[in-house]
Amino acid sequence: MKIEKISKMALYICIGIILVSFAAFLTIGYDNPVGDNNEPILTDIIMWLMYLLVLTTAGLTVWSGVKGIASSKGTDPAATTGVPGGKVSLFTWGLFIVSIVIGLVLGLGEEAFTAADGTVTSGGWVTVVDAFCVSIGILILAAAASVLVSMSGVLTKSAIKK
């Protein structure tokens, strides 16, 4: 029960920080015309927030994986939960790699991109951005499908209930 309370508190704190950051971004210096473009003053806050959230998520994911491996040594989690963790992990990593490859193949041959201010991004970097965008789309669809399967209880029906 204590872990659930900590988890909820962390969620509420994250939501609060995100809402305050976006509110500040949209209300403080959002209309800052520079030439033909609008350059909000607090763009750096949103960028740093993104970096912080990605690094925190990556760190917690690694910590959770290590903790999960350590706690399930010598036992078969599939026997108690009905979820084959090894197969799920293998599928997850495989899907990630396949989504990156699909993105790279779809983005091959991209031309250099020239922004309105004259900044030129090479075709290689445009391909990398395209690959990650396609990968994100594929992984979002897979995550949505996973949530639906999880909510249906299909994988846990074979679990041994204690």
What's a concise summary of this model?
The protein has 162 residues and is mostly helical. It has helices at 2-27, 43-71, 77-81, 85-107, 123-152; strands at 33-34, 37-38, 113-114, 120-121.
Structural commentary:
This protein is 70% helix and 5% strand. The protein has 162 residues and is mainly alpha-helical. The strands form two sheets. A two-stranded antiparallel sheet has the order 1-2. The chain has a two-stranded antiparallel sheet with strand order 3-4. It is flat, with a radius of gyration of 21 Å. The mean pLDDT is 83.
Task: List its traits.
single chain; 162 residues; mainly alpha; two-stranded antiparallel sheet
Strand order of the largest sheet: 1-2
Number of helices: 5
Based on Cα principal axes, name the global outline. Answer: flat
In terms of DSSP E residues, the strand content is under 5%
What is the CA-based Rg, rounded? 21 Å
Largest sheet report: 2 strands, antiparallel
Number of strands: 4
N-to-C terminal Cα separation, in Å? 19 Å
Secondary-structure element string: HEEHHHEEH
Structural class call reads: mainly alpha
Helix coverage percent of residues?
A: 55-70%
Mean of residue pLDDT values: 83
* Uncertain residue segments: none
